[in-house]
Specification:
Number of helices: 2
Largest sheet: 3 strands, antiparallel
Structural class: alpha+beta
Helix content: 25-40%
Number of strands: 3
Number of domains: 1
Order of helices and strands: EEEHH
Length: about 80
């Protein structure tokens, strides 16, 4: 696994905060974030009824909009790895 740290939420205390990584080998983006409330999870599941509930082993993670630049950076890292 070739995981590259991209960044953390700049508005947190650097402890228990949303984080973004890029796994350039697996071509995946990894997120650490806040668990949604049960109400938010239910709303997400209801918004796509054909999809059904979130299965075991998967989860919904809440990431603040101020981290969009880090998500773009992670996307770029994964795309660059595809070109190697």
């Amino acid at each position: 696994m070739a995981v590259e740290f991209v960044g953390i939420d700049p508005n947190t205390d650097r402890d228990h905060c949303p984080t973004v990584w890029a796994d350039t080998e697996a071509q995946e983006i990894l997120f650490q974030g806040w668990n949604p409330s049960p109400e938010t999870q239910a709303e997400c599941e209801a918004s796509s009824p054909a999809h059904g509930p979130v299965p075991d082993g998967e989860g919904i993670v809440r990431i603040p909009a101020r981290m969009i630049h880090l998500i773009r950076e992670a996307c770029d890292a994964v795309e660059r790895a595809q070109l190697r």
